[in-house]
Amino acid sequence: MIDFNDTIAIKDLLTTASPLIKSLVDTFVTPKLEKFRDKNKLVGTEKMIPTEEDFTEYFHRTYKRLIVVNTLVFNNSQIFLNEIFLPLTLRSTNDPNLKVKVEGFPKSISDEFGNILITDMAGMGKSTLMKKIFIDSIHGNYGIPIFIELRRLNKNKTILDEIQEQLNSINKHFDSKILLDLLAEGGFILIFDGYDEIPLADKDIVTQNLQDFISKTFNNRFFFTSRPEKALSCFGNFQEFKIEPLNKKEAYELLRKYDKKGRISQLLIQKLQETEMSNIEEFLTNPLLVSLLFTAFEYKQAIPFKKYLFYRQVYDANFESHDLTKGDSYIHNKYSRLEIDDFHRVLRHIGFNCFSLQKIEFTKDELLKLIKESKDFCVGLNFKESDFLQDVIKTVPIFTQDGNYFRWSHKSLQEYFAAQFIYLDSKQKQNSILEKIYNHSNLENFANILDLYYDMDYKTFRNVIELNLLEEYKIFSERYFEKNTIIDNSELLKRKELMFLAENYFFKAKRTKSKDPFHNEKFRIMIGDFECNCKNQNSKSSPILVNPSINNQEVYLANYQSNKKMLLQLLLNKHNEIVKELEFFRKITHSVDIDFNLKENYDYIKLNDSPDCTLNFQNNFGKVNFILEAFGGLGISINSKEALKKLKKIKSEMKLENQSDFLLSGF
């Protein structure tokens, strides 16, 4: 935690950073501004241009803010970023062999691709990585870094407005057009963090604004982070990377960082090495869950084996935390005077409210309004809204304050309380809420809530989410190739599994000198056609070369995944029998002898169940399955045999439950 000595250390760091910031301003900012000042003197608007002092002040202010991070491990207090930073490995979603370990600014991939999109699930360290990249941009003098938290954007606040607000000094306002022209010149490193945290109601407008901004400032380097979302497919000129899961050695190293190689981490690692790991391996691959494991173990000296229990123990540890600066026995009194379970009850309602709004950051008035609504819902609890706000910032630091904004310390914490609300407080509306989530056009936004809920209340999850998915597969499997009389049944069954929740297009494209056919206008039109033809609201994987052929003509696969494919990944992580991993995913090293019958460059064919489709001819059917298994999306599919057996079992058990309810109705 940051103490008096650390305050001195921060000043020392800023003193060390000052010459680095000056060098960056001298190298990149001053030449750019001088050029603009000369240009604008002619029209008398030179005073509306940012100055070197504006940029210097911004770099100092942002550097100071980003070198420390809030962490749940230390009751949401601050710790130096470098003390807990663990280098992470990025893997290209197009080329599994393209991996880079990021210890600072990832110059190699930034030089090669320019626009980097990093997508991954909750807690994989995306925001921490972006902070490290900003700081290292200054240390390495790589360009002019601008760090933007995208949750600040809405229908009334554009990306240019936010950049302008970040750069503006007190009582100084720039001309927005001049600022845009300045950005369009290039030389900037634009770090856009947390696309998934943009309020859902404003996302379409904000996305359009971001696309427009990026198209006008394309001479810069971009870093863009988000949880997986279908809307990200519109940023097609970004190279997408995932974060590789931590291995055990890295997880143990991170635990030691949280404890500065102390007794707690040593004891925890020892217990982990003695414990049957099958139930906890998933938690050791995720940096956030590793930190929660440390906090939970420090509090109870026990290892929780379900994710939601991590969050509960972290909450308990925060609620009952001792103030070590005043002796082990001193515990902060709560301003609201609520007991631990009552406080949890209020947070559940706030969490669900925020989940419904798809928003994690609020003004003070907005947050007080949410607290009042939760107080009204929790009949029998009496407290002042302002006291509860004090608690969630100070004594039970579930929220953090950043200037005039208040936000959940981590989005996944809000999702934990929302999932708990559905389980404990929604009563007979549980099924209805889960039904709405299942059918939501942005289903992928609720992946973490469903992941948590699965462990809290598997029976209801099964009777709603899993049942709906299985019913959908049954209908699909009965209709797909309904009139088949030729294809081998085992190959036909595999095709149904591979095509469930996916649409696939094969197209021919000629490589250019840059070996990239994707920026051709014909290609963009074709991709637009694919998207219009897709029946479901799908997310697109980048086209993948699947079949090199003669005359420099190559066949690519564009694969569109339904957002419900996320459920298969969730079920696979839970070792659910209705899902399986694909045996050959991304392991093909040779071409497959198929005549795709594609004549012209950018000619394409949609894979369907028509006997007239060349890909469904008897001699091609199994080969196409082989390609789909290797390159078709996420490397997972439904297990047809187990799925239909499970569907029958669920229906049978629900029928018995309904009979029991009828018998009990007389009491």
Keywords:
Rossmann fold, 19 strands, 667 residues, 25 helices, alpha+beta, 5-stranded antiparallel sheet, 4 domains, globular
Walkthrough of the structure:
This protein has 25 helices and 19 strands. Helix 20 (458-479) crosses helix 25. The chain has 667 residues and is α+β, with helices and mostly antiparallel strands. Residues 322-330 have low confidence and may be disordered. It has four domains: 4-243, P-loop containing nucleotide triphosphate hydrolases (Rossmann fold), CATH 3.40.50.300; 248-326, no CATH class; 340-466, no CATH class; 482-644, no CATH class. The relative contact order is 0.07. A seven-stranded mixed beta sheet has the order 4-3-9-5-8-7-6, with helices on both faces. Strands 13, 14, 15, 16 and 18 form a five-stranded antiparallel beta sheet that branches. Strands 10-12-11 form a three-stranded antiparallel beta sheet. 50% of the residues lie in helices and 13% in strands.
SSE arrangement:
Elements: H1 4-41, H2 52-66, E1 68-70, E2 78-80, H3 81-84, E3 88-92, E4 99-102, H4 107-113, E5 115-119, H5 126-140, E6 144-149, H6 159-167, H7 176-184, E7 188-193, H8 203-216, E8 221-226, E9 239-243, H9 248-259, H10 263-274, H11 281-284, H12 287-300, H13 307-319, H14 340-357, E10 361-363, H15 364-377, H16 385-395, E11 399-402, E12 405-408, H17 411-424, H18 430-438, H19 447-456, H20 458-479, H21 489-499, E13 502-510, H22 521-533, E14 538-540, E15 544-548, E16 553-562, H23 565-573, E17 579-581, E18 604-606, H24 618-631, E19 636-638, H25 640-664
Parallel strand pairs: 5-8, 5-9, 6-7, 7-8
Antiparallel strand pairs: 1-2, 3-4, 3-9, 10-12, 11-12, 13-16, 13-18, 14-16, 15-16, 17-19
